[in-house]
């Protein structure tokens, strides 16, 4: 439902543009509203989940997103006001972040209970939701359905189905953080990353202390950087592949859109198949292979001599980008339930930087060397992700 909700408004961007008489520059400003809402919210999502629990945070986040969808529709169809639509998109972003953090915490609890990897399939379900949402958006546009009606129906579906699904959540019954006035945090040493803060037996940390402690954990921060690299590889494709195919290979806009569909399909397949390879080879080897595959696909896409080879490169690129975010979430959440929400919020905050800062930076670079060749900048962070893969090794939880 998160994927369907996101794709519902993205798929109606042409109608939103026409309804608000927007230029390319003002469209970018409108999209920035959601990015800023998400970035502001994700930094607080750990506190929200630690206080409300995974189930309530998921329900509240989906309700806020649903409200944002309706406000966006009102801004386009009723008020024809970009400011109202921008407020709606910012509200969507605010709701998505605690929802995503809570979902990752619940998914990590499932991994611990099942003693096998399932996080990639959960993220694969988001990707599948975006495909379904895009198809429904195309149908709504073809039928001439007003944006308000379309987004309102999507909002009701999101709110109702998420509430029903969340009734099966179990992680809140396993772990509920307890508050304490004791805030002192001592340090221990991790064999990979060095000193990390831990809670001594008998101590309890409140939500703020957990988040503050997570920001001082080298392993958590390094996993965040790792996720940043592969998230940028994913986000750059969504933002620039259609334009790169059009400008770099002389294809029309329709084929550019098909190219992005190829990438998303490959990424979805990679996520649904990722659980098998993770159970067999573990996080470090899988992330090393994914990073190398993403780098190879990106290089091949930029330097492909023919368009058909560029499309083949998108398959390789999509498969390589598929597991970075879910495996990063699993590494920080599944190993220690006590600190799961705080650590997920930290890694998500760092990872969201790829989606917030990546597009404008690549756009500025593209002004000088072209959109296609600007994508080579993503390789730097992919290499960093390759080097950092060992920090995701399974850690034994520390009693608190």
Automatic annotation (TrEMBL):
Gene Ontology CC annotation, any one: plasma membrane
SUPFAM superfamilies in alphabetical order: MFS general substrate transporter
Membrane topology category: Multi-pass membrane protein
Domain of life where this protein originates: Bacteria
One MF term in the entry's GO annotations: transmembrane transporter activity
Annotated transmembrane regions: 27-50, 57-77, 83-101, 122-141, 147-165, 220-237, 257-278, 285-304, 310-332, 344-365, 371-391
Major facilitator superfamily (MFS) profile domain ranges (all copies): 1-392
Localisation per UniProt entry: Cell membrane
Keyword annotations from UniProtKB, A to Z: Membrane, Transmembrane, Transmembrane helix
Presence of keyword Signal: no
Alphabetized PANTHER family for the sequence: BYPASS OF STOP CODON PROTEIN 6, INNER MEMBRANE PROTEIN YBJJ
Protein name: Fucose permease
